Amino acid sequence: MPPNPPVMSVRDLRVAFGATEAVHGLSFDIHRGETLALVGESGSGKSATALSILRLIEREGGQITGGTIRLGGTRPANITSLRASELRALRGDRVAMVFQEPMTSLNPVMTIGAQICETLSLHRGLHGAAAREAARAALERVKVPEPAQRLNQYPHELSGGLRQRVMIAMALTCEPEVLIADEPTTALDVTTQAEILRLIASLQREMGMAVLFITHDLGVVSEIADRVVVLKDGLKVEEGFTADLFASPRADYTKELMAASPRLGEGAPVPLDNPAPVLQVNGLTTTYGGGLFARASAKAAVRDVSITLGRGETLGLVGESGCGKSTLARSIMRLVTPSAGEITLLGNRIDGLSRAALKAHRSHIQMVFQDPYASLNPRMSICDVVTEPAFLHGMVNRTDRKAMALDLLARVGLPADAVDRYAHQFSGGQRQRICIARALSVRPQIIVADEAVSALDVSNARRITDLMADIQKRDGVSMLFISHDIAVVERVSHRIAVMLNGQIVETGPTDRVLHDPQHSYTQRLLASVPRVAARHTPLRVAGAHPVDA
Fold it and tell me: Per the database record, which ranges form the ABC transporter domain (predicted)?
């Protein structure tokens, strides 16, 4: 078989942000019909490489300082030397990109139809009814239900999974030669993730396009990638066919990534023996919408939920996006007001308390959110950030705040010099540690962690969950751990509750629920979990082989 020339070749790519070089001499090829995965921790250079391929890195303050990025095929092009007008013609036509968070990538004030038609007008010269019909067909191709109606909707009216399908539809409208998928499933639950991955794979087979898949999820890599490039601090440390690399990784860093990656079936903490309850929820219902004159339009996001959390116990809460997990957490925190039911915190009913009366109880239960950067005030020093809850509750005075901050930062493994810095000066994993330190400042009995590690790479996620486990053992803190990553939930949870359409459909000790699931929905969830395994059969495209940097 004659060699298959690459559809894209990256040679000795160097990318810098000011005086700091983020990518150091990276080289790789991608062939037609092949999926190449770029993996590595946050800051390894994955996204900088992707943005460089589309020459979007300049918009982020970066610059390509060396190397070449070439497109092959019948119209060869050196992307690194194209003019602005040539780049506009190339983006979305020959090379397209799907980003991690579709809500920030889609225009919130334009309908879905208008955004797809804009791409068709620019690259295919379609307008009016012809463009609209092509847009409808594009949504139908990616299996968006009721595509004609979706054309008139805005991004906020769609679920996360549907928004990602819209992004894929837009990216594939012009049938690109290369699709760059930058963490496209990180924020999705396992069933939606499985659907998106199957969709990308089927469209790839149909169109014969090459896919550059950027992710920190090795389970996803082992299922979809033909070859893998491992990056660390902007350097390629290993490259190879997926099955070969997973069976016998050569680089120590690759071995560390695999060791940190959660695997379903590794075992769960031993259930506690009848711990005293610190939180009891009975018949909780939370309704959105409706109102005094529109009761028929009201929707129950949480319906008749009852759970118990014991002292020093972790209860894992799992389920698809939109099932009501976060609403349940926010209802327990009384950040939203339940419509019915009882919430008993440390023996006190809090469901009917006024906002003023709640203040005395808020120190007992604290929340750690998914996005640590959005949770931290960028104008406040870390000293003020981590001690603010304690200061507001009168547990520390102004003169003692720095001493408390130093103690809290030490407890979560951050250096003392962090105390006078600001949130933007820290990595995602470090910012999440700061959020945990802040929650600990009031010595809570319960921490609610709402997707607290879903946006982190596997190494940082492991460090954060290990930290939370250490805090629990040391302080006896109880945790409600919400996540769509069931392997992570298994590692940290004594018990699991499975949520579907606002209701708890199954609950029990973690090992029992995961190894002998009783409900069909739990069984479907578990079947969708990607497994880290060397069982993928590589495409072995003729001519595809590891490239030396």
Answer: 8-258, 279-526
